[in-house]
Amino acid sequence: MKAILLNISAWIMLPFMDAIAKYLSSDLPFFQITWARYFFTVFLVLPLMFFFFKDQLKWTENPKLQFYRGITLFFANICFFYSISIISMAKALTLAFVAPLITTILSSIFLKENVGFKRWSAVIVGFIGILIVIRPGFIEFNLASIAAVCTGCFYGVYLIITRQLHSTDSPLLTLLLTGLVGAFIGSIIVPTVWVNPTLIQWSWLIIMGLFACLGHILLIYSLKYADASKLAPFGYIEIVPNIILGYYLFNDFIDIWTFIGLFVIISSGLYIIRREYILNKK
Description:
It is a single chain. By secondary structure, the protein is an all-alpha fold. It has one domain (2-281). It contains twelve helices and no strands. Helix 2 packs antiparallel against helix 8 and helix 3 (63-86) runs antiparallel to helix 7. The longest helix has 27 residues, at 199-225. The chain starts with a helix and ends with a helix. The relative contact order is 0.22.
């Protein structure tokens, strides 16, 4: 029960980070917002680890994998923050839910997992759900929608790498290194798009980093009390606060087609998660 509460708390908290990013995107470049999300997350996590988890600050056994993990999540955040600067948070997140489908495809290629007919069918159904949401040929098919799908693709790669790191490195060390990779790469590029934030905007950027930090710490600690496969379905709860915040803050609400597509994508994702859980028990 503790694991579920921690996990749900994380998925309720993270949409607040997205809402701040969308709010700031009207005045600040989305890349600068992405940089701030990483910079302030590291700024908050590093003292926390130094004072309370110093024994876990041991160098990683897989530096290359940690770098790849960090850079894939960094690109996922860039794509997502760009997409929500153009389209609604709910639609962007719905399209990003392609992640479990991508994970299934990549696990058969890179992890040599046996993906059966049922799971392949669920992947195909999930992609049909994506087509329902974006409806190419019926509505304007824009770059923001593609970026949202790319978010899920990068996040799917991120999940594959996380699986490989799970048994070797401390989760808190992984959180810190992921943040450092994003902050380092972002700091190199961000001067090219820099816009001087106001004092209020700096405050919002810091708060955004705080939500990101707390959300990911809650996720990590939830995995301490339960397996990832058991907690995976709760990730879809994120859409609820996402829709609520989008509606009340930005007057965005998803249409009936997006609702249908969301239902199809989540259903296929849940089926894949359930199949993986059953297969792991055998």
